[in-house]
Amino acid sequence: MEEKNNLRLIDANLNRLREGIRVVEDIFRYIYNDKNTALKLKNLRHKARTSNYTELLKTRDVQNDVLRASIKSEQNRDNLNSILIANFKRAQESARVLEEFCKLISIEDSENFKYIRYELYILETVLTNITSNSK
Fold it and tell me: pTM of the full predicted structure?
C-alpha cells in the first residue's frame, strides 16, 4: 500500500511539474514569441519523465483527492507576472518532491528532477525580470 501511495504521489507531482512548466512555456511561446526560451522550457518539460508511466497511471485516483478543490490564492492572479511566478513555484516544488520520492526508486530519476529544479530556479530569475518589466 505504501508503494502504491508513493507512486500516486509521484504521478501527481509529475503532472504538476509538467503543467507548471507548460504554462511558462506557453507565455514565452505565444505572448513573447520567444522561440529560444520556449524551446528551453519544452526540453525541460520533456525531461520530466519516468519509465514507469503505466504503473503510475494505475495509481491515479483523482476522485478521492482530499485537496482537489482550489483554495482562494489559487483562484486569483493579478497579472502575467503573477501567473509566471505561481507556475514557477508549482513546478519547483513538484520537482523537489519528485527528487525526494524518486530516491526510493531510482537515483538517476532523482538526480534528473534535481537538475530540472535548479534549471527552473535559474530560468525564474531571468524570466520574471522580463515579465515584471512589461507590466
Answer: 0.86
